[in-house]
Fold this sequence. Notes:
Layout: E1 2-5, E2 10-12, H1 19-26, H2 28-33, E3 36-39, E4 42-44, E5 54-59, H3 64-85, E6 90-91, E7 100-106, H4 116-129, E8 133-138, H5 140-149, H6 153-161, E9 168-173, E10 176-179, E11 193-203, E12 212-221, H7 224-240, H8 242-248, E13 252-253, E14 264-265, H9 267-286, E15 290-291, E16 297-299, H10 300-306, H11 308-311, E17 318-319, E18 329-331, H12 336-343, E19 355-364, E20 380-390, H13 395-412, E21 419-425, H14 438-454, E22 459-463, E23 472-478, E24 484-493, H15 496-499, E25 504-505, E26 511-512, E27 515-524, H16 525-536, E28 549-553, H17 559-571, E29 576-579, H18 585-594, E30 599-603, H19 605-609, E31 612-617, E32 620-626, H20 627-639
Parallel strand pairs: 1-5, 15-19, 21-22, 28-29, 28-30
Antiparallel strand pairs: 1-2, 3-4, 3-5, 6-7, 7-12, 8-9, 9-10, 11-12, 13-14, 16-18, 17-18, 19-20, 20-27, 21-23, 23-24, 24-27, 25-26, 30-31, 31-32
Amino acid sequence: MKVTLKDGNVIEVENGTTAEQVAKNISENLLRAALVARVNGELVDLNSELPGDCTLEILTYRDEEGREVYRHTASHILAQAIKNVYPAAQLAIGPATATGFYYDVDLPFAITLDDLTAVENEMNRIIAADLPIHRETVTRKSAMAQMQGYNEVYKMQLIEEMPARTKITFYRQGNFVDLCRGPHLPSTGKVKHVKLVQLAGAYWKGDEHNKMLTRIYGVAFEKKAEVEEYLQKLAEAKKRDHNKLGRDMQLFMTEERVGQGLPLLMPKGAKMMQIMQRFVEDEEERRGYMLTKTPYMAKSDLYKLSGHWDHYRDGMFIIGDEVMDDEVLALRPMTCPFQYMIYKNGLKSYRDLPCRYAETSTLFRNEASGEMHGLTRVRQFTLADGHIICTPEQLEDEFKGCLDLCEYMLNVFGLRDDIFYRFSRWDPKDKEKYIQDPAKWKQAEKTMKTILDDLGVEYVEGIGEAAFYGPKLDIQSRNVYGKVDTLLTIQVDMFLAERFDMTYVDETGEKKTPYIIHRSSIGCYERTLALLIEKFGGAFPLWISPEQVRVMSLTERTAEQCKNIADELKRHGILAACDNRNEKIGYKIREAQVDKIPYMLIIGDKEAQNNLVSVRHRSEDLGTMSFDDFYKKIREEIDTKAIN
């Protein structure tokens, strides 16, 4: 049979030849590096027999898919090690991640990071044993019997949920067998270096109504130096983790009696939020947006009309079952239907379009407790929300304007280099999540793809990531640990204007249905604040710092002068504080550096007598200058929104 290789060469091999044998025939070096194969576009195990004439690509650690299989095999090694160390453990799932793997496991007792040493040692023993890994295809009945024999209740549940005619595959390494569709490496020895790094809790299937399992995270790399580099990055990430650093800097806190996912912004964090909101609202107004202010709650009737009641009810907070006058109320998860009602107040002409509404909205979403984290995923949050109602002819220009606003904001806040774009599309198989109108979905996605391609936007696609009413462009960002979250979104909506009977009169006097763009200019303020904390490690750009200048007295004799200087800065709109404590100046400076204050002014007798200020930036000593020169310097830095 003929096998076409990636380079286009065609070779003749015998029937029954495996991908691994082809690699061996090509070169010993390729055989040593080979991890998995792609046959006719499908990933398969190296020891799989080739199906006849086919295309073949041998993948190594250099290939993304090769690394993914490498790390997924590491997760199975972890599972085997867990069962060897803790025989009573019950296994759930164990996928690969961007840098490693994890496995969810039900343990009869709690474990700590110290306990992972024994598991990691067992993993290394399994790797050293270089156990061959074999794929087994079994019947549903046999699969259930095997998992029942091992008392693997989570695996049994997964098998029960599989379609009746699904081919069920196990992978066996030594005396360990696990349910998996594969593919995997040929043997455990192909995995070179692993390290267990974290413990966490995770609900089975992500559902808070299910049991909380123990999630064990690990990393897997080809070289030891890669592991060490990762651990160094992890240590740096922990220092920058907003959930720790934000609390240490007293930007926000949480309180059990207040509730999970309900962070309390402290004075410094609230000041940063205020600075951000004022800037965003002013910029939106400059770009032609009209400010609205709408209620935090509404009757269920409004959400039924918008579709949220049918497609998003589980994510909403319902206020009791029934209230006065038999009205069911719910806190708003988004602002759209409220602004639509404002649009409908009065007949609109094509001359009134585009109609741009913007609002700093407090929103409420019933996030699962296992999903909430710091400021990035919360139950009450603040969104720079907005909607544009426009004609079909205006759609592309308005979309372009939304993208320009988003990119401007990302540049100003110093986040532009940390994002990527995702074209989020619907999944026609998901009947529950989406409004069912295939023709309109096809039109909406075609229109949006044309816009994105015309604008030259480079994006990945996400099937099943669209909003229930339309496709969207998600601007994605990674936190310090590499986890991806949506920061901003621009959505094209061809459904809700018709549902709400929103119209405009065109040039001919005929009533038409407009298009709607849902957009955010900076996204969720809490999540953006979390990213800023991590991006700058708390050393924020001057313009957004909650305390911009700290004035310190060198002696008691200059205390009054310090207060006068701080007051003068405040009169000029600078966020200044005065430190007149009877402490050594070195102590005051170190404390200000720990607090990451951008500028420190030190006033001694010499400075007071000559109307000068001694200036220290948080990273260097800038020497002595006049107050006017210092003020001009920081005013320019603030006005230009400089990112240091």
